[in-house]
Amino acid sequence: MTIRTRILLVYLLIVGGGFYYLLQRSLDGLAPRYLESMEESLADTVNILASAIEGVTDSDVIDPARLQSLFDGAYDRRFEALIYTMTKTRVDLRVYVTDAAGRVIYDSAGRDTGADFSTWLDVSKTLRGEYGARATHERRGDPSSFVIYIAAPVKSRADPARAIGVVSVGKPTASINALVEAARKRMFVAGLIGGGLILAVGIAFSIWITTPVTRLTAYARAVRDGRPASLPRLAGREVGELRQAFEEMRAALEGKTYVERYVQTLTHEIKSPLSAIRGAAEILAENPPPDAHDRFVGNIRTETARVQRIVDQLLQLAALESRKARAESAHIDLAAIARECAAAAEPAAQARGIALSLDAAPAPLRGDKNLLAQALSNLLQNAIEFTPAGGRIAFTVAPDPQTREVFARVEDTGPGIPDYAAGRLFDRFYSLPRPGSGAKSTGLGLSLVREIAHLHSGEIAVANRPDGIPGTRAELRLPRRAV
Predict the structure, then answer these.
(1) Cys-Cys with 414: which of 53, 81, 317, 386 at CB 3.0–4.6 Å?
(2) pLDDT at residue 325, rounded to an integer
(3) Which residue intervals define the domain HAMP in the entry (predicted)?
(4) pLDDT tens for each residue of 180-192
C-alpha cells in the first residue's frame, strides 16, 4: 500500500467518519424534532379549543349539540394548501370532548361517542390537573396510523379551578412522515455532495502531501540510472531541507563513485597499451636491426595515440556526465547536421565497399550543433566498422508525426548484436571485436552518445533490426524543444 493511499484512508476514516456520524445523528433526530414541533402546536390548538368550548357552555354543562355546530363546519371545509412538497385539502385533526367523568360526549370521528375514556392518559392526567398527552396506533401494527393526542381541561365559569370536562386533539403523523421523508432526501443528497467534496479534498490533500516524496523518488531513480535530472523545486521548510539533503547526498555519492569508477576503468584500459610501450622501449634499448627498430617505434606511436584517445574521450564523457559541459541552446536542423556527417563518413564507407544512403527531412529543434554532430558521427562510425564489404547503411532523419520528437536512425547489415552483449552496449570501455580485424574501440563512443542524448532530454536505443534482416538499428530521439 502506497503512502498516498494510507494518508487518504486515514483522512477518510477521521474526517469521513466524523461527517458520517454527524449526518446519521441528524437523520436520526429529524423525526423527533418534527414531532416535538407538532406537539407544541397541538398544545396551543387544544387550549384555544378549550377556551372556545368554555365560551359556549352554560350552567357548567357541556352541550353536545353546540359542540356539533361548533366543529362540524370546520370538518366540512375543503381547501388546497401547498406545504413544501405536500398538498393539504382537509382538516385531519381529531377532536373529542369528555365530561368530568371521562365519558365521550362529542367525537369528530363519530365513532367513540359515549365511550369511557377516563383511563386514557390524556384524559385521566388532565382531570387530575396534569399535562395530558398520549401517543397511540389507531390500527395495530400499522406505523402510518400513529397519532399524538394532547388534552386540555374545560373549566367551569363559576369555579375556574374545577374541570367540567376535557377536550383532546389528535394529530396523525402521516403528514409529518411525508415532510420528514422529504427532509431526509434533501439531507441525504446534501450528504452525498458533502461526501464527494470530502473525498475530493482528501485525494487533493494526499497528492499534495506525497508529491514531494514522489518527485524526490523520481529524482533519485534518475540519478541512479544515470539519466539527466534536476532537483525538483518543493514548497515547505521541512521539505526544502529534505530536498537539500538529497542534493548533498547525491553529490557525495556521485563524487565518491565517480572517482572510484574512473580510476579503476582508466587503470584497466591504460595498462595494456602501457605494457606494449614498455616492451617496445626495452627492445629498442638493445639496438635491434633497423626494420625491427622502425616497427617498434610505430608500435609506441600507435599505443600512445590509443592512450591519448582514451584520455580525451574519458575527459569529455566525464564533463558531460557531471554537467560541466553545457549544451548550447540554438535553433538547428538535425537534417542539415546529418548531411554533413554523412558526407564526412562517405569516404570511409566507400573504402570498405559499403553503400551509405541518406534520407533526411527537415527536423528543426533547439540544441547544440557540435555535440549532436559528434553523436551522429559516432553512430555512423560504429555502423561502418561493423558492416562487411558489400553491405548497406541506411541513415534516416525526420520528425515523428505521432510525437513532438525528431529521430535519427542508422541501420546496417552487419552481424548484429550477440545476446550476451545486448545489455552492456552503453557500459564504459565495453567494446565488441570488429568483424574481420577483431580490433576493439575505446568503448566510450556509445556512452558519449547517451550522455549527449540525455543532455538534450532525449534517448538513444541500439538493438538488432526488428524486420528479420541481419544488422543493427541505432535510433536517437530528441524532443523538438530539446534545450
Answers:
(1) 386
(2) 47
(3) 207-258
(4) 777 778 788 888 8
